[in-house]
Amino acid sequence: MTNTGNVTLTDVTAADTEFTGNGDQPVAGCPRDSLAPGGTVECTATYTLVQADIDQGSVVNTATATGTTSAGQTTTSAPSEAAVTGPAVGGLTLTKSAEPETVSEAGQTVTYTFTATNTGVTTLSGLTVLETAFSGTGGSLQVSCSPTTLAPTASATCTATPYEVTQEDIDSGALTNTAVAIADSPTEPAGVTSAPATATVETNPAAGLRLEKLASPDTVAAAGEDVDYTYVLTNTGTVTINNPAIEDSRFGPPGPGCSAERIRPGQTIQCTASYTVTADDVTAGSVTNTATAYGIRADTGQQVESDEAQETVPVLASSPALAKSVFPAKVTLPGQQVVYRFEVENTGGTTLSDVAIDESRFTGSGGPLDVHCPRRPLAPGTSMTCVAYYTVTAADLRAGGIDNTATATAEGGVRSASATARVVAEAAPNSPKGRAAPEEAGQRPRRRPERAGERRRHRRLADHGPQHRTHPAGEPDGERPRVRRGHLPGDDARPGRPDDLHHGAVHDHQEGREEGEDRERGDRLRDRH
């Protein structure tokens, strides 16, 4: 303070008229209380800044000086102002962490924690955390902070609601989150923003495929049949498998077709293919193939393979079926001829060779039967007829019948179920039961003279070559004829009605003549005697 007057001033003081500080207002002290004209005195006051002063950016102080003249008059100076200002810069940092740091499957939860620190000199308020980037597909994070006002150097912890990991997150290979902290600053209208903070959650899923293989039908019998394969493919891992495919030893590229282009964890899809059985398969006795499933991991792009799956479809073993018939079913005279017909069908899946008839029981006294079968292989699904001829004896008539049981056999020990046939033997009227026929007595049978107006028809058995040569025509290869159901060798008069074979001729019979035939045979027998 300077005394600009011409009188000495006493009780000189300095007093604040305005003070913007937020702390205790200071009081100025002067070293003496009188001031001569032209004299100067310095008064001082000390003030300690508080955070609020920093936050407002300045402290302004306005003061006046007063003194008293010898006449008792008070003199006051004009106001004098002093302002203290500083760089009130706000600062904010953000750190971020995630727990757990690694996930392996969808449904797991991740908790994100954020720590915001005031690194400036001003108090920050309205603290929030804002996500700037988040790769999670399950929605944005909801973050809350406490406290929301930060003094310099103070920190606040912000947490996000637990985030549930999705399958897409797992398949992406990593889960990343970037965020910033934002707060209001009293000295910066735009507020304070921290540098970005990033947290990465790694994914470590397991990859696995399980392959099951089904075949329909579960057995086959012959070449040309189709086997439908179904491949059941399951994702046993925790990462999606893209572009699933099947590699099968029976099929070339592109292999069986699959119903989907990706398999999510736990999901099952089906792939299908159809295979036609070959002759080699039939010879091998089964259709066996091995398959492997593979696909591409969605997270790393690496290939995943299943264990091998093998399926074997057996070829049905050779299986002959035997049907047996006899004609006539009833005999009344010695010397009558009975025709046995054995129809063998290959009901298996492999060709039969060396087909023969095994007579396990034959009660005819003139037996056993001499059965002739065609000399050719028997393919699956085909049949052949074997034939035997038997001449009734008096002993058969006395026994009352002829029983026969047989099975069909083939190379390799193959055998059919047995088939049985019975011929009823009953002596004709006026024929002494048990009398030997001329043939049995060593006599040559005499042919009964034809009656007036009677016509007897004969037809010689035709020779149609080695495959169809009839009996008893010449058989250089020793092969018996193959007899169709309902026909005897060389007979094509009427299907479904086998004719009697006698002395190398086939006699045609008219409908309803069985009883007459018996009488005719009786007449012939009497003629012989």
Write a concise synopsis of the structure shown.
This protein is mainly β. The chain contains five helices and 34 strands.
Tell me about this structure:
- The chain is mainly beta and 529 residues long.
- It folds into four domains: 9-85, no CATH class; 92-203, Immunoglobulins (Immunoglobulin-like, Sandwich), CATH 2.60.40.10; 209-314, Coatomer, gamma subunit, appendage domain (Immunoglobulin-like, Sandwich), CATH 2.60.40.1480; 320-425, Immunoglobulins (Immunoglobulin-like, Sandwich), CATH 2.60.40.10.
- It is 7% helix and 41% strand.
- The protein has five helices and 34 strands.
- It has helices spanning 51-56, 167-172, 279-284, 394-399, 514-528; strands spanning 9-19, 34-35, 58-68, 74-76, 80-85, 92-99, 102-103, 109-118, 125-134, 143-146, 155-160, 163-164, 174-184, 192-193, 197-203, 209-216, 226-235, 241-248, 257-258, 262-263, 268-276, 286-297, 303-305, 309-314, 320-327, 330-331, 337-346, 356-362, 383-391, 401-410, 414-415, 419-425, 500-502, 505-507.
- Strands 1, 2, 3, 4 and 5 form a five-stranded antiparallel β-sheet that branches. Strands 6, 8, 10, 11 and 12 form a five-stranded antiparallel β-sheet that branches.
- A hairpin with a 2-residue loop joins strand 33 (500-502) and strand 34 (505-507).
- The longest helix has 15 residues, at 514-528.
- It is rod-shaped and about 195 Å long.
- The termini are far apart.
- 30% of the residues are buried.
- Mean pLDDT is 81; it is low at 436-529.
